[in-house]
Amino acid sequence: MPPPNEYPKHIDIAILAGLISVAPLGAQNMPAALLGSFEGPVQIRASGSDPEPATVGQRLEVGDEILPGAGGRVILVTRTGTAQVVTQNTVIEDAPPASSSSVMARTISVLAQAATFTLCL
After folding, report:
1. Given this model, what pLDDT does residue 97 score?
2. Is residue 11 classed exposed, middle or buried when 0-12, 13-18 and 19+ CB atoms within 10 A define those classes?
């Protein structure tokens, strides 16, 4: 078994997709977005805090800022189940929770996009 830091990045995306798929069970506690993966220098500034290094799976709330450095790139998974590539400073905005009927279709779409992103790295 490889050391934890050598697991393929698609495992992280699969875990995030699993979290998104249970969104209707606890939608009131769902973050605005999750940090699916990233490359290069990326920092996150939580509302009212100093910037800190990003981590895969990090919960992002409304008002948090994503601060990619030169060449930095982030894949966010929003609470609606969509994936978004971020390459510029971005403030997280609110989005309505996904309906349970659309979560599975969007999860599959996110996984496909993440696989494409991982293959391009």
Report:
1. 59
2. exposed
